[in-house]
Amino acid sequence: MVEGEEGYPQTTVKIEMFGAKDGGQPWDDGAHSTITQLLIYHNHWICSLQIEYDYNGQLISPSKHGGNEGSSSKVVLDYPNEYLISIYGYYGYIGKWGLAHNVIRSLTFQTNRKTYGPFGKEEGVKFSFPIMGAKIVGFHGRSGWYLDAIGLYIQPIPKIELKNFRLGPFGGKGGHPWEYVFRSIRRFVVDHEQWIHSIQFEYEDKNGKLLWSKKHGDTNGSSKSEVVLEFPDEYFVSVHGYYSHIRVLEDSATVIRSLTFKTNRRTYGPFGIEDGTRFSCPILGTDIVGVYGRSGLFLDAIGLYLGTTLNMKAEPEPVAPPAPQIQMEQSKLRQYGGEGGDGWEDMFQTIRRFVVRHGVWIDSIQIQYEDANGNLVWSNQHGGDGGSRSEVVLEFPDEYLVSIRGYYSDIRRWGLATTVIRSLTLETNKKSYGPFGVEDGSKFSFPTVGLKVVGIHGRSGLFLYAIGLHVASIQE
């Protein structure tokens, strides 16, 4: 990244290219006032790109970068009110078409108002330019017969001039729409299991009053997690997740499967299952000033309003709904894995040691824990004696287990017709241990923000076939 290059305003930043670094010939349109339109020729890849710029009131259209093949699509921006804020896409090898070449396969353009694309085929290595709080004012790259690589010039947008804009919504079209606009978010409550059942959040309204939103979705998830920000020093920097189509009994819908919240201090989640189509909302340089979406039986869709809280006008105070009652003395979370072996369950105050035997799967686990009377007890070994032995010793009393994640799959290819736990990673309030085993198959996780593990249950025989948790609220 080069900042303040000669000939450009000192606020201009040049972003390095994604794609093939040695294909075609380099080109550079330079930096301008804004972008007015884009002409894209595309097929299974991006054949060419031509951009029209405004430079101090004069329209400029440099030469086309690439060839003339494929279908053409034109993106016309409503400038100066609409401007480009981000681009993402894919690049990869196109040898299967008889061409030994790496090129840009797909491009999607995000403005402060809407998303255009994707153009081309979303296949290969994904890339993105998450530059919220800035606008794109120029392009550079490499091209020959096709668009081989692409990079950007950006200029920060002063917060006082930054208009609020939407990201999303991501997900399905079921349920009913809802939206909130506010100064800040203080906490999130997420009800989840195989998907996001509901969300509810506490926010500061335009008058500075703390309110709770309604609950958006149902309440049938097996896990409830609460994210509490350390206001005002902690704030969101990105939100990402997954959505996909699900079928429950006779109902089917596209829903939010997973949510992860990243702040300037830590990452919360993932809540739910990371399966389906991934979406991302980078927030750098802006504030979350609103949340909107759709919900019914599930959380069907979610999006964000980004912008600035400066000069936000006060409004008449709404009637605040009651705060949610988050009372989880103890909760049993579902098992992930197979149906083989025999069931078992260990309950405790806290874990001191965790012993894992593992190879290409988890052969067994055994734990040393403090029971209800304060005695140190070793559990039975749950599984067989195969594989290598690893031991995790927690720094009692300051460190405790808060979650476990891993993978499970069928191991028929080893001549065994059974489903087992393939990998485990232990999450404490201080660090992660693992992964132990091989991360292959279906991913699972137990996101338990604000909770600690007080029990483990599962199934085992020759191997560890399944695992689940008991969790309880952390009492400060």
From TrEMBL:
Gene3D superfamilies: Jacalin-like lectin domain. Residues 12-156, 164-308, 330-473 form the Jacalin-type lectin domain. Keywords: Lectin. CDD domains: Jacalin. The keyword Membrane does not apply. Pfam families: Jacalin. GO terms for molecular function: D-glucose binding; D-mannose binding. SUPFAM superfamilies: Mannose-binding lectins (SSF51101). Belongs to the jacalin lectin family. PANTHER family: JACALIN-RELATED LECTIN 3. This is Jacalin-related lectin 3-like. It comes from Cucumis melo var. makuwa (Oriental melon). The lineage of its organism: Eukaryota, Viridiplantae, Streptophyta, Embryophyta, Tracheophyta.
